[in-house]
Amino acid sequence: MAELAARAALSRAQFTRRFIAYTGEPPIRYLTRARLDRARHLLTETDLTVAQVSAALGYQDQSYFARQYKRHTNHPRRATKGRLSDADGKMRVMTQNGELTRKQLSDAVTGLGWRLVLNCLETFVRAESLTEAVGTAAKVVAAVDGDERVQLAVDDSGVTVVVRPPAGQGGTEAEVELARRIAAAVPVGGAGPRSVQLLEVAIDALDIPAIMPFWAAVMGYEADGKEVFDPLGQGPTIWFQRMTEPRQQRNRIHFDISVPHDEADDRIAAALAAGGVLVSDDRAPAFWILADAEGNEVCVCTWQARD
After folding, report:
1. Which fold has domain 198-301?
2. Residue 134 has pLDDT above 90, yes or no
């Protein structure tokens, strides 16, 4: 959309407003409808499979394409000779190293008062004072015997508890068991000012190794080769996304806000109602790209469509 706005010599916000005035719908919704209308033709009039059609139309997640198609067309499966069932994608039970799928992790802990946010299990324990919060934190530490996978953030409103799998690994039954032990020790899932979430900052760069030391130094962070992080846990992680060519029409720094999967729609709706613009939902439900009225971008992310 940034390229179309540039060709029209308009800002992205101006382009979006004029597009809606002319067509009656935002550019992304218009594009999605056109793609799905094309998909209906290809699936009913040709012998192409769902995988071939979704790839041809630019969808990287076949299951997401199938859900969008059925929601858009209300098409019964028999109309496409059962081929939509190819995209339903049965979740694997677990990988060879014991990792659970993200859906399995979410299903295992949601009923315990926990939420899966990207790859971590998170919950909040409400407190009436700092003294109470510190006491709660001590109970959590005792329940898990000081396990280093458990991280705590304590203030006078309560305790945020995160169970983080080892670096580079997915969650397993071991992390679920830690969540169970904590839930048995303290009243997790208490109402806080909002639900749990994870904030990260992403920087697009042509030469990541050349700029990473700068960001580690200026932020007082440490680098691990792929990202820079706050060793004190006070600030968001900064990660780097490689560009293949210079880009002048879009900001090169954006926020990633990861939320529980069933809260993404409400968060996006609130952002759009506050004057935001939906830039892209091509990778939804893994993430949606939104922007403010001046084009500054943020990704609303969930754990879905990442296995």
Report:
1. 2,3-Dihydroxybiphenyl 1,2-Dioxygenase; domain 1 (3.10.180)
2. yes
